Amino acid sequence: MRLLDEQYTRTPFYGSRRMVIALGEQGWKVNRKRVQRLMPQMGIEAIYPKPRLSDPAPGHRIYPYRLRGMVITRPNQVWSTDITYIRMRNGFVYLVAILDWFSRYVVDWEVSITLDTSFCLSTLDRALEKAKPEIFNSDQGSQFTSAEFTRRLEDARVLISMDGRGRALDNIFTERLWRTVKYEEVYLKDYTGVLDAIGNLKAYFRFYNRQRPHQALNYQTPEAVYFGVNATKTAMLRIGLAADRRSSENPGGLCRDIQFMQAFRVVTDQCFAATFVQIV
C-alpha cells in the first residue's frame, strides 16, 4: 500500500493496469486483482474521464459545479475539501482537510481510521465556527453528498458545488495540497501509530499555514494572505474552460500544476474540455 500511495501521488491518472506495470518496473511483482482491491480501500482511483467515475450513496443529492468562469478575489469566497490516504508503519489512516482557495490556507483538518462521514462533519463544524465561505466545493463522495453534510452547509447558507465526474482539475488546489503534504511530510516520516501521525501532521499544518511561503502567493504564507496580515497584493484566480493557453505571467507553481494535469490527458489519449486554473 505504501508503494501504491507513492506511485499514485506521482501519477494520479494511472489505473490498476498501469499501476501494476509501474510497480513491476520498480522490481515489485504485484497481481492486478490485488491492486484493484487495495485502491478502493485506500480511497484512490484514477482521475481520467470514464463513465460512473465515483458514485454517491443511493438517495444522495448531487449539486452542480459552480466555479467555472468564476474569478476568485478574496479569502472565504471558495472552500474545498477532500480525503486522502496516509500511510503508517503498520496500517493507515485517512486525512480530510478544508482549504481556502484564494489563500491556500488549511482552515481545518482531521484524521480517521475509517472512511465514514463523522470525521468530515466534525471538521466542517470546526471550520464553520471560524468563518463561513460563500461556496463550498467537494467531489461526489458519499461523505460529502450525505444529507448530514449538505444540511450543515445549507443551514449555514453556503452555496454547495461538486466536481463533475472525471473532472480532475475541478479541485486542483486540494490535489496539490495532498502532493505537498505527502512529499514534504508523510514520505519523510515513518509514523508509528495514529497518535504519532496526528502529532506530526499537526506540526506540519502549523508550518504550512504560518511559515511556508508559496510562490503563487508572491512568497507569502497562507495565513498572511488569509488574514491579511502584512499581505501584499495577490493575483486573482479565474476558473475557466481549457484552451491550453499558457502565459509567461503565470506563477511557476500553477504552471507546474497545469502541466502535471495535462500529462494525464496525453497518457489516457482522451480529448475533452477540461477545467483549469489561470492567473489573470
Written description of the protein model:
The strands form 2 sheets. The chain has a 5-stranded mixed β-sheet, with helices on both faces. Strand 2 and strand 3 form a beta hairpin. The protein is α/β, with parallel strands linked by helices. The protein is built from 10 helices and 8 strands. Helix 2 crosses helix 3. The chain folds into 2 domains: 41 residues; 157 residues, Nucleotidyltransferase, domain 5, CATH 3.30.420.10. The C terminus is likely disordered.
String of helices and strands: HHHEEEEHEHHEHHHEHE
Low-confidence stretches: 47-54, 241-280
Radius of gyration: 18 Å
| Helicity range | 25-40%
* CATH superfamily annotation of the largest domain: Ribonuclease H-like superfamily/Ribonuclease H
Strand segment tally: 8
Question: Distance between termini?
Answer: 40 Å
Structural class: alpha/beta
What is the fold-level CATH name, i.e. the topology of the largest domain? Answer: Nucleotidyltransferase, domain 5
The number of distinct structural domains comes to 2
CATH class of the largest domain: Alpha Beta
Task: Label the CATH architecture of the largest domain.
Answer: 2-Layer Sandwich
Query: Which term fits the overall shape?
Result: globular
Q: Count every helix, treating DSSP H or I runs of 4 or more residues as helices.
A: 10
Biggest beta sheet attributes: 5 strands, mixed
Summarize this entry quickly:
The chain has ten helices and eight strands. It has about 280 residues and is α/β, with parallel strands linked by helices.
